[in-house]
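Box 3.1 A note on notation
Throughout this textbook, protein chains are presented in two layers. The first layer is the amino acid sequence; the second is a token string describing backbone geometry. Keep the layers aligned when reading.
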Amino acid sequence: MAGLDSLTKYEYRVKASNAMGDSEFSSPSSVKTGAGPPSQIAMVRLVSATKSSLELDWSEPNSNGAFITGYHVWIDGVIQKASETGYTICGLKPLTNYEIKVRVINLKNKCCTQ
């Protein structure tokens, strides 16, 4: 089933159908969904900049039930690992455009690039 919330208890009942009709519903059963991917990072903030570096930070997003293990900072296709909610990118060239993305990772899944 799609569209279920993480760490939520759901109750369900089942019935069988064939050409002769439908059975009665089963007794209710329940199941609790597991952890899901973390929420997207709301905003990456520029803390400071020099001609060769950028200091970035962000707030920790909702983990959706699984411990956040770290972050990937993507700089023009090269992934750097970050364990905290901030990262300093060094070795940049002046007057050069860079594409930078940050992805959060929890024990369950990778998620959401910002």
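The mean pLDDT is 91. The first strand starts at residue 9 and ends at 12.
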